Description:
By secondary structure, the chain is mostly beta strands. The chain folds into 2 domains: 2-286, no CATH class; 287-353. It contains 3 helices and 22 strands. The chain has helices spanning 2-20, 166-172, 270-273, and strands spanning 32-36, 52-57, 62-74, 77-91, 97-111, 114-115, 119-126, 129-137, 141-148, 154-165, 181-194, 199-212, 215-227, 230-239, 246-252, 265-268, 280-284, 288-294, 299-306, 322-329, 332-339, 345-351. The protein has a 22-stranded antiparallel β-sheet that branches. A hairpin with a 5-residue loop joins strand 4 and strand 5. The radius of gyration is 26 Å and the shape is elongated. The model is unreliable at 1-9, 11-47, 271-277, 309-317 and 343-347 (pLDDT under 50).
Amino acid sequence: MWFIFLAAVLVTGVPWLYENVFVHDDFDIGWSSMADFNSVVPDDIGTDEDSSLNLNFLNDGYVFSRFRIEDLEIKDAKVSADLITKGRILRDKQGWVIGFSGKLFSENATLNSKRIPPLRASFEIIGDELRIETLRLGRSYRLGGKIDLVEPFDVDLRLEIERADMRHISRTSKVKGRDTVFGIVSGSFNIKGALSGNIFSEGTIESRNGKISSVGYKLITLRLEGFGPIINIVDSNVSQDSGTLIMDGYVDLRNVAKGGLFDGVRIKSDLETIAWNGWDITKHGSDELSMQKDINEKMRVGFKTMTTDPVTTYEDREHPEEMSLEYKMGMENLKMKLRDNEEFFVIEHSVKF
């Protein structure tokens, strides 16, 4: 989650940097300078006196720069890092500057005095568009896509997470009870919209063999949808040995730095906190819950219900409660379904080939 926060800082800062720092045509070959970084950052972002920017313009349009950011305060976050940029100014046939192509590296990066993985990025600025070929943070996070550098600052990005350790996330973001949060997380997000208006995001996250506080799990799959910094849990699928988990609520990315990142997430059991040992739980939408359990190698039972009171009467409800029993007989399966308060009984017979 803190990588999403860092990406958000990046994409919101790029338009400002482009308008205030990026120079189009007045480059002097072989010229270098040292700039006071405090003189070019916005007033609502605080920096330490040690922050600085060093630019070197070399022959054939090559550029080397080093940003030293010391205790850069962004809301409740404090960032320090050495950012190194290597690249080349792009010109058309007439010699006019049309963009920049380069690579970005970070060294000694910290967030709230906690070390974070190194950043590696390849990008191009062509006209008024930033094209991110790849932006990696450590081995687990990768961001790609494009950002318009003029209003309304349209964004089309994809974030991929591969085997991230939840302990690193919790330690960096000051999660409460972070010593009892662990697990491996993978997933992907699509981020689209306009920075000057609305940003929408959607994606899925999967975590295996983890623990949140005193609750352990084998597998959690979440479908997420976001509006701005608020990421909502739309659907959840939970499988564990001792008890059931239903996750809903939201994550506020503005709380990454100050703690309480998961304060909006609720973890609860179904149907008045009844624990169902060995059940596979699937939540569909906001109020439909399916549960299945293997009794033995040949028998499996299932139950489907609604977790909220229906607006219509029970008899008129579109999806009444349903029980099922599946029995394996060699290569054949026999499945029976029964709906309460209805004259409904079904037998399904299938044969494996």
